[in-house]
Amino acid sequence: MFALIRVEPLKGEERWRRVREIVAAAKDATTPVLAFQDGLTVRLYETGGTARLLAGRIEPDGVLCVVVGCRRRDLPQARLAMFQFIRSLYR
């Protein structure tokens, strides 16, 4: 399993555009967009041998971007841990 976390420095409406891009519709998306009250938005993608849970959230100084992933075959065992990790980023 892997995780990549960064804050992209953006201002104003650019922050909203970037969050929409992070979870944009794609042929490899396997879930609908999930939006939470704290502003965190997530979506699961599966491509080739990899499964990735992508998340974005508006922050005062930009956008929090998170990618948590694993081998696709490990997804049934890793899915809950991936989701719990992203939810642990609650402000």
Explain what the structure shows:
The chain is an alpha+beta fold and 91 residues long. It has a single domain, classed as Mog1/PsbP, alpha/beta/alpha sandwich (Protein Transport Mog1p, Chain A, 3-Layer(aba) Sandwich). Helix content is 25%, strand content 40%. The protein has 2 helices and 5 strands. The chain has helices at 13-22, 75-87; strands at residues 2-8, 34-35, 41-47, 50-59, 62-71. Strands 1-5-4-3-2 form a 5-stranded antiparallel beta sheet, with helices on both faces. Strand 3 and strand 4 (50-59) form a beta hairpin. The longest helix has 13 residues, at 75-87. The radius of gyration is 13 Å and the shape is globular. The two termini are 23 Å apart. The mean pLDDT is 89.
Strand order of the largest sheet: 1-5-4-3-2
Oligomer: single chain
Order of helices and strands: EHEEEEH
User: How many structural domains can be distinguished in the coordinates?
Assistant: 1
Major sheet attributes: 5 strands, antiparallel
User: First CA to last CA: what distance?
Assistant: 23 Å
CATH superfamily: Mog1/PsbP, alpha/beta/alpha sandwich
Residue ranges: pLDDT <50 for 5 or more in a row?
none
Kindly identify the CATH topology.
Answer: Protein Transport Mog1p, Chain A
Structural class given helices, strands, pairing?
alpha+beta
User: Into which percent range does the helicity of residues fall?
Assistant: 25-40%
Shape: globular
Number of strands: 5
CATH class: Alpha Beta
* Separate helix tally: 2
Portion in beta strands: 35-45%
- Compute the average pLDDT: 89
Query: Gyration radius, to the nearest Å?
Result: 13 Å
